[in-house]
């Protein structure tokens, strides 16, 4: 066979192979790698925060953002959230990214399923405050309900022989009254009548008067001042009232008036009537006030029965001024010696039997 024939056969077979390969499409394996995309960068460092934090609407929490940079107003239910804008966790909200697949960059604030409270057939959101009745204020916190009482019941002191808590018409909270069987009262005791009348002492029909107790005197001896808050006025506005108080004189040694064999003197009273004076002004009337005494042991004497009287003062320039003055009727010596400026003084006003017996 000649070389020319061999060359012709090789060329023919090559053309046949090319034609067969061109009739069949090449198979390319499918890629399993997801399409790349640019993820949004919500947090930027270093942090740049405003000088003053934002002012959030009522009920919206001011929290740290998701970048741990600045304080921001928390997003509420239905609002867009992301890695920087957090949902209000105080209200039991979380960022739901389920509708942003596969990126999971933006979400919507939604409630956790277990953060709602049910009371009396009503559903409350976590963080929602509600008042089931006039005596309690409640708050829903992560499925649990916590309540605080709106009524403050102050039981009578231990020297009250027959305490009784009564319902006052027109008022939500009951009040304690003290019956006084020793005086043989057949009608309602004066404490009950005072409680009934106090509920009607409103200048306007839509104003319920509220008055706090007088604070302890600012001084343990000499003239001081005690305060209270009240809205018993024509405008029904909360105002601060002041009254003068004098628990005992500083210039008198009361221990010299304690009887032999005794360790305490409950009440000290001056022999002569005198005028009250304040800032150069003199009271128009003469007074003989009572003061609390002292003890030579560890006990101290404090007022437990007193009232407030109006005293008119005549000033040198002819002006007349009126001051409320604490008038002591009775004092009680006990072991609970308190600082007159102690903010917890009202919490320690009931005494033990052994202190009364002594």
TrEMBL record:
Keywords: Cell junction, Cytoplasm, Disulfide bond, Gap junction, Glycoprotein, Growth factor, Secreted, Signal. Residues 1-19 form the signal peptide. The keyword Transmembrane helix does not apply. One of its GO terms (molecular function) is integrin binding. The keyword Secreted applies. It is found in: Cell junction, Gap junction; Cytoplasm; Secreted. Belongs to the CCN family. This is CCN family member 3. It comes from Silurus meridionalis (Southern catfish).
């Amino acid at each position: 066979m000649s070389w020319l024939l061999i060359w012709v056969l090789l060329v023919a077979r090559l053309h046949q192979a090319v034609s067969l390969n061109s009739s069949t499409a090449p198979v390319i394996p499918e890629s399993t790698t997801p399409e790349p995309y640019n993820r949004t960068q919500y947090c930027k460092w270093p942090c740049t925060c405003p000088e003053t934090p934002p002012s959030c609407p009522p009920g919206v929490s001011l929290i740290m953002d998701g970048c741990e940079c600045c304080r921001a107003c928390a997003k509420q239910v239905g609002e867009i959230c992301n890695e920087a804008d957090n949902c209000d966790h105080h209200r039991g909200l979380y960022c739901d990214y389920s509708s942003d697949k596969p990126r999971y960059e933006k979400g919507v604030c939604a409630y956790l399923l277990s953060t709602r409270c049910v009371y009396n057939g009503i559903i409350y959101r976590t963080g929602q405050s509600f008042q089931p009745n006039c005596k309690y204020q409640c708050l829903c916190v992560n499925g649990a309900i916590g309540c605080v009482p709106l009524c403050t019941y102050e039981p009578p002191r231990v020297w009250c022989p027959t305490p009784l808590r009564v319902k006052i018409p027109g008022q939500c909270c009951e009040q304690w009254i003290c019956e006084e069987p020793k005086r043989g009262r057949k009608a309602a005791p004066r404490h009950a009548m005072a409680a009934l009348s106090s509920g009607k002492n409103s200048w306007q029909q839509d104003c319920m008067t509220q008055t706090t107790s007088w604070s302890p005197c600012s001084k343990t001896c000499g003239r001081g001042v005690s305060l209270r808050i009240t809205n018993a006025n024509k405008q029904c506005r909360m105002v601060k009232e002041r009254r003068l108080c004098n628990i005992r004189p500083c210039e008198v040694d009361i221990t010299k008036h304690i009887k032999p064999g005794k360790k305490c003197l409950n009440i000290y009273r001056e022999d002569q009537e005198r005028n009250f004076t304040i800032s150069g002004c003199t009271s128009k009337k003469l007074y003989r006030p009572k003061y609390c005494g002292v003890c030579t042991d560890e006990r101290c004497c404090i007022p437990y029965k007193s009232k407030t009287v109006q005293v008119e003062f005549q000033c040198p320039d002819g002006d007349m001024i009126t001051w409320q003055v604490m008038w002591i009727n009775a004092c009680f010596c006990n072991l609970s010696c308190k600082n007159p400026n102690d903010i917890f003084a009202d919490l320690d006003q009931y005494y033990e039997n052994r202190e009364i017996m002594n």
